Amino acid sequence: MDAFLRAAFERRLGFLTPLEAVGENATIVVETAIADCWNERCREKTQIITSIEIATDQGAFDFSLPDLTDHPHLLAEILQRLPSSFDRKVIQKRYSHTQRRSYVSNGCARCNRLFGEFMLAHDPSETDQIATFPVRLDSRWLALLSSHPDIEISQPAWWVRA
Ligand SMILES: [Zn+2]
After folding, report:
1. Does residue 52 lie in a domain region?
2. CA of 121 to the centre of ligand 1 (A)
3. Which of 6, 90, 95, 120 is a good FRET partner for 128, with 20 to 30 A between their CA atoms?
4. What is the distance in A from the centroid of ligand 1 to the CA of 95?
5. Residue 144 falls within a domain, yes or no?
């Protein structure tokens, strides 16, 4: 409560939507895991991206690869930041017969089968952080953030500016 009162006196309180409150800077954290191909004649092991987190002053927001389908520039920026050991060709826009649409997905490094999102439900202890980098939350990042359900459903509230 002290921090809240101090912020009030210093006029750092604002009645803002969460998107207005996130500030200008964030850290992107990319996590991967090893997936087994579900094609019985392949069974190759592939390192896949399981989550892309945007950590802001107001909390962290998790995204998956399909969420980046409409944000190709952000996807390119993220891929650029991954270590060279990561096989970028597993990340592609593929057609899903289940979802009847094309979206950015993980796929098998050998047979290129699409790995659906159900395969991304991994034990967090088996995931690896392969990249962490700072970004300025420009309009492109804010457009992605605004699609997050926690932000979409949120109403304006009193926030303390950093
Ligand atoms: Zn395969």
Report:
1. yes
2. 19
3. 95
4. 16
5. no
Distance, CA 123 to ligand 1 centroid (Å)?
Answer: 21
Residue given tokens 């392969």 in the structure block: 130
Assess if residue 40 is contained within a domain: yes
Predicted local distance difference test score (pLDDT) of residue 30: 97
Question: Does residue 160 lie within any of the structural domains?
Answer: no
Let me know: does 39 contact 108? Beta carbons within 8 Å: yes
Please tell me the predicted confidence (pLDDT) of residue 108.
96
Tell me, in angstroms, the distance from the centre of ligand 1 to residue 39's CA: 6
Give the Cα separation of 65 and 74 in Å (integer). Answer: 11
Per-chain residues with Cβ under 5 A from ion ligand 1: 37, 39, 42, 44, 108, 110-111
Residue found by looking up tokens 């909390």 in the block: 59
Task: Mark residue 80 as left, alpha or beta (left: phi above 0; alpha: psi -120 to 50; beta: remaining).
Answer: alpha
Task: Residue 133: count other Cβ atoms within 10 Å of its Cβ.
Answer: 14
Find the 105 Cα to ligand 1 centroid distance in Å: 14
Query: Separation of 41 CA from ligand 1 center, angstroms?
Result: 8
Range of the domain at 55: 23-138
**Pairing state between β 45-56 and 13-16:** unpaired
Q: Which residues of the chain have pLDDT under 70?
A: 1, 9, 11, 13, 18, 118-125, 153-155, 159, 161-162
